[in-house]
Prior knowledge:
The chain is mainly beta. It has one domain: Methylamine Dehydrogenase, Chain H. Helix content is 4%, strand content 45%. It is globular, with a radius of gyration of 21 Å.
Amino acid sequence: MHKERKLVRAIPAILLAIVIVIGAGASAKEPVLEIEEVVTRYTSAGNGAGPLWCYGSTVIARIGDDVYLSVIETGNDVPLLCNTRWQLWHRSNEQSWKIAQHEQQFRQREPCPIGAFQNGTVFLSVNPSTEPPGTKYGPCIPQILEFEAGDLTGQFKVNKPVWAEGAYFTDHSYRGFSADGANNELLLVNINAKTSEQFVSYRDRNSKWRQKGKITFAVRACYPQVALKNKSAHILAIGDIVEPNEDWRKLKLEKLNRAWDYVFRRLFYAYTPDIEHVPFKESVEIDSVEKTGGHITNLDLYVDESGVVHVLYLKRPHQYAFLRDKYFPGQPMTIHLEYMVIKEGKVFSHRTLAETPPEGKKGLEPSYARFYVDSQGDLYVIAAGTMKRDQRDTFGNFLARLDKQGRTLEFHRINLKHPFRTFFTNTPRGGSKPCDTIDLFGIADDNPNLRYARIRLE
């Protein structure tokens, strides 16, 4: 069992220009909106897990000109908690969205992440309950469903991942799923409901599943981003525990009048350079807003061709103004989009890409973001946020290319009629090949619609 330790930051005096920047160079590509449409509508399941609940793992993937999407459907009058079922959708250049197949019964609580191999295989990570309908916090069996892209309506194969001894999984899986689409390998992590350890299962390129132990963090860590590339495996997870400060807990109960009080303040990272032969190294804490009562949202993780790890997350030093006013008076309420580079388990560089501008100043106040990688291997950030300028605040989605020259950061608007508030992308972590077509799926200003947009970089 690994124990969390504080990360000693190894930051060279000169950062070798790995600092980012956006849209600076004649070769920067421009976003062209090709499609913006509603896929379906979502009915709330009332079970605590909405259609984007698995935000650490994507539900959309691309193979060539075909796009695949995993959506959950709520059952009518099906009792909690496992009252949804998966739907597998498909779209091509010639065809609009169609349901290719769906689960026969409503046995899921959470959305079912998707993965793809570029040879033409689509996977769904599912977590069906083993108990009668209406069972809460009951046992579930994680499975990976395997579909042939050319025959999505045909019989699928059920993969049963292998786990270390002591695994106990329920309808609250807090799982992470990743596909190495070029090397035909899969990685699945799932939380042990009794111990909060993340258990690890790996499928190699010969389709053999192997248990790869478990990862322990300093506190329960959930909603993991998982990346598998050339056998290196990486996990980014956020602490998810009840408010540990008794005074703050009492104040929040008084102000918010609710007993639910989980906090997300400590960001953790764990990795192995070779999952086939090397155990996961000791987990590390890479950022925290514990001391100031803040909030962190882990957003994305990307491993480039050289093995360098890129991390994206939101950071609020103070989550609530009333808590700030009493314990940290005079400090601003801000939100920051943070970018971090990790090499061989150590933070190499760290900078803020965007943050709430001072009163009267121009700038982007971020609210969500994802990475994107184009056909040339250039790294982008797609952000949701409010552009503040000349007393005019405009919410939108913005695209930024991350340069390696150390130039000024600049975001460019994507011309969506309904900008996404939260969204998934066709990410390499889900097996999609880096390309110049961006697929976005998520929620905009017309919730409960679930929307899709296709954007071409040119």
